[in-house]
Amino acid sequence: MLSTVIVLLLAGATAGNAAEPSATAEQLRFFESAVRPLLVEHCLKCHGPEKQWANLRVDSRAALLQGGDSGPAIVPGKPDESRLLRAVQQLDESLKMPPEGEKLTDRQIADLARWIAWGAPFPPSDAPRARDRNPEHWSFQPPVKGAIPAVRQADWPANPVDHFIVAKLESAGLSPAARADRRTLIRRVTFDLWGLPPTPEEVAEFLEDNRPDAYERLIDRLLASPAYGERWGRHWLDVARYADSNGLDENVAHGNAWRYRDYVVASWNADKPYDRFVREQLAGDLLPWTDDSQRRELLIATGFLAIGPKVLAEVDEAKMEMDIIDEQIDTVGRALLGLTLGCARCHDHKFDPIDMTDYYGLAGIFKSTRTMEHFKKVARWYENVLPSPETTALQTAHAAQIAWKQQEIRALVAQADAQLSASSPPESNAPEDRERRYPAETQAALKKLRQELADLEKNPPDLPSAMGVAEGRPADVAIHLRGNPLKLGAVVPRRTPAALRGPEPPAFSADQSGRRELADWLTDPQHPLTSRVLVNRIWRWHFGRGLVPSVDNFGLLGEAPTHPELLDWLASEFVADGWSIKALHRLLLTSATYQQSSQLPSGDEQALRVDPENRWFGRAPVRRLEAEQFRDALLAVSGQLDDSLGGSLLTVKNRAYFFDHTSKDLTDYSSRRRSLYLPVVRNNVYDLFQLLDFPDPAIPNGDRATTTVAPQALLLLNSEFVLDCAERLAQRVLQEAVDDACRVDRLYHVAYSRAATPAEVHAAATFLRRFEESWPAVDRSQAWTALCQVILAANEFLYVN
After folding, report:
1. 198 pLDDT above the threshold of 80
2. Which residues are paired to 673 by β-bridges?
3. Where is the Cytochrome c domain (predicted)?
4. Which of 349, 551, 596, 638 has the greatest count of CB atoms below 10 A from its CB?
C-alpha cells in the first residue's frame, strides 16, 4: 500500500532547518503550476484533509516537515536527503512511490527536487481562496487619470511625471538629487536607448551644442536610429521567451525564429502602436492586409504564440496539446496582463480571482488554434509559408515538375497499352492486369517514373516560412479535473476572465478561434492591465525598478505600486498618445526625474536612511551593464562592432539538433555582430550571457537580476574574448594619439566618455613603465593591452551612473 511505502521511506529522516524560506513570486508560481498539481494528482487522495494514512499529510509545508508516524517527509534545501524524493525516484526496488501505476516523469521528479532545493516554499495555509475574495483589487479596475499634484518645489518639475515623483518625496521629507552633468546624461541615455556607449565624437558634439533643446534633440536622434529597435526589441524578446531552439527533451533548431526577432526590432523602430503590436502577435493571420509584404509581417508576428518550449517526444498526444495550450495561456497572462493565469489549470487560482472556468474559457481559444503540424513523436510545430515572388516561383516550378512527371507516366502507359492492344486483344480492362503484361523494360521504366513522382510529392521545395499559428477547428474545452485530459468535467464556452473590469466581455464567433476577439479585448482603452503593464515595463528599464516592482505580476501576490496615481496617469496618457512607445520614451527621458544624478549631496544621509532602496526615485540608479550591453560595448570601444541588421547566425538547419547527449554544442558565437543576433540555445545559453544574468529563455521575463559572483571577475581576467577586445582597443589608441599622455586620455574618452585626470595619466604611465621593466622581452603593445584590460574590467566601464 502507498502509505506503507511512505512510512518505511520516512523512517529515520530528520527535519533539518524548518524555517519558512523567503519565497519569491516566481517560486510560488512554480509551486502552483508544477508542484501542487503533482501532489494533488498523486498524493492527496490518501494523504490529504479527508484521509491521512499513517498520519501523513502532504497539503502544507508544516505537514510535510512533521511527516507521518515515522518522521518528516522532506529536508528543506536538501533534496538528496529527502526521503520523499528518493521514493519517487524509485531508487530502491522494494520501495517505490507511487507503488502502482506509472513512475513520475523525469521532469516531475526534477520539479520536485528543484522545489525542495529552494527550501520547499509553500503558500501560507491561511491564505483566503480566490473565490472567497472580493475582486476589487486595484489592478483589476480601469486606470483613472487623476489630477497632476501640486508641489512645493514648483520650479523642479520638467513635465507632469516629476510632479508625482516630487510630491511623494516631499511627503517623505526628502528632496530630489541635483541634475546630472551632461557627460553622464549622454552616456546614460545612449546606453538606455541603444545599449551602446557614445563615441567620443558624439559626446563632444553634445557638449558643444548650446541650444536650449540640445538634450531633446539627442533623444530624438537616438530614437531614430536602428540601434534603438535592436536594444528595445531585446527587452520584448525577454518577455516573449524568444529562443533559437526548442529546449526541453528535443533541443532542435527554431531555424526560422529569427524572422520573429527581426519583426520585433522593426516594429519598435517604426514605433508601431502597441495595441497594433499586440493584435498582430495574437491574431496577425486573421487581420486584413494590402500586399504580400504586409501579409508576411502579419504571419511572422504570430510567432509570439509558437516560439515557446515544447515536449516534442511526449507520448500522450492529448497531454502534449494541453501542455502547449497551457504555455500559451501562461505567456499571454504574464507578458500582456502581468497575471499568472497558468496556475488555474488544475485548481482555482489560490490567490487571484481566476478560477478554472476562466482558464478553460481561454484554453478553448488556443485549442481552436493550429500551433502544431502533428503531435506524433517527434512532434512538429506548424510554420506559415510566407507569400513572395520567390515562394510563388518555387511552388510553380515544383507543380510543373509534378505535372511533367505525371504526363510522362501517362504517355508511357498509353504507348504500352497501344502496343498491347495491337499484339493481342485485352484479357482484362483493369490497369494492374494490363501492366502485368507490359514488357519487363516498360514495367521497370514505369516503376522508376512513379518512384520519381512519389519523391517529388514527398519533398516539396524549402519555401520561405516562419514559426506561427493558423486557425484550427473551433471548439470549446471541458474542464480537466486536476489538469488531467482523461478526467473531464463541464465544457466551458470560450471567455475572458470575469474579474477584469473595464471592457465588455467579447462575443466569440462560432466559426473562428477567438484570437481576434481576445486581442481586441486586450487592447481596449479601458482594459485594466494592458497599458499599465507595458508602461511599467518601460519605466523599469529606464529607472532600474518598476513603479510596480514585480513587473510580471500585478496580481495579489505582486507588489503594490509605489506611485499608483503616476502609473494610472502614464497608462492613460500612453493610450491617449495613440499607444506610442517612442512618445512614452520622450516623456520619461525628458523628465527631471530621469535627469537626476546618482550621487546625493555630501552629508545628505536622510535619503539613505528613509529610502535606502530608492523606491521614491529621489536619485538616479547606478546600474550594471546587462550581458548584451557588456559584450556590445566591448566590441564598440575596440572598433570591432558589426552593425549589420537582421538575419540568422544559426549553423544548423531548421528542426535539426543542436547537439546530442554525447557531443558538445558547436554553436558559433564568434560573430562581431550585436549580441541580439547571437543564437539563443535553450538548455545551453552562451556562457558569457549566463555569467551576466541572462534570463531563462523558456519563460516570459520582464526583469533581470544583477548578481555579483566570483566567475564574473574571472571572466574579465581570463576570457579570450575580453583579452582580444583589450588588444584591439590598445591598437586603436596607439594609432589615434601621438604620445602616451594623449593615448591615455583617448582611452578614457573611448571607454568612459570622459577625460583622464592628471592623476590617472600619471598612474597609467607608471603602470606601463613597470610592466615593461618587469617583462623587457615583450612587445610594448602588450603593456598597452594589459592597461586596456584593466580599464575594461573597472566598475566605471561595467556600470552606468
Report:
1. yes
2. 642
3. 22-120
4. 349
In a 3-state reduction of DSSP, which class is residue 799? strand
- Residue of 14, 18, 51, 30 lying closest to 123 (CA atoms): 30
Q: How far apart are CA 626 and CA 547, in angstroms?
A: 21
Peptide bond into 426 cis (omega under 30): no
Cα 32-33-36 angle, rounded to 5 deg: 50
* Cis, bond preceding 378 (omega within 30 deg of 0): yes
Secondary element (H or E) of residue 47: helix 44-47
Of 556, 565, 566, 536, the C-alpha closest to 548 is 536
Which residues are CB-contacts of 18 (< 8 A; sequence separation ≥ 6)?
65, 76
Closest residue by Cα to residue 148 from 456, 565, 495: 565
**Distance (Å, rounded) from C-alpha 481 to C-alpha 488?**
6
**Per-position DSSP letters for 677-701, written without gaps between them:** GS---TTS--HHHHHTTPPPTTS--
* Contact between 542 and 586 (Cβ < 8 Å): no
Q: Are 798 and 185 in contact (CB under 8 A)?
A: no
Crossing angle of helices 780-793 and 740-752, rounded to 10°: 30
- Rounded CA gap, 89 and 86, in Å? 5
Question: Looking at 158-172, 507-521, 648-662, which range is the least confident one?
Answer: 648-662
Q: What is the SS3 string spanning 328-351?
A: HHHHHHHHHHCCCHHHHCCCCCCC
Q: How far apart are CA 422 and CA 703, in angstroms?
A: 82
Q: Which three cell numbers stand for residue 121?
A: 516554499
What per-residue string of b and e applies to 319-329 under the rule 16 or more CB within 10 Å gives b? bbbbbbbbbbb
User: What span, in angstroms and rounded, lies between the C-alpha atoms of 204 and 187?
Assistant: 12
pLDDT digits (tens, 9 = 90+) for 474-522: 999 999 988 888 889 999 999 999 999 899 999 999 999 999 999 999 9
Q: Are 340 and 330 in contact (CB under 8 A)?
A: yes
132 vs 286, more confident = 286
Other Cβ atoms within 10 Å of 471 Cβ, number = 16
Give the contacts of 410 (CB within 8 A, at least 6 positions apart): none
Whether the Cβ atoms of residue 527 and residue 502 lie closer than 8 Å to each other:
yes
Cell (9 digits) for 788: 586596456
What is the pTM (predicted TM-score) of this model?
A: 0.84
Which amino acid is located at 131 in the chain? R
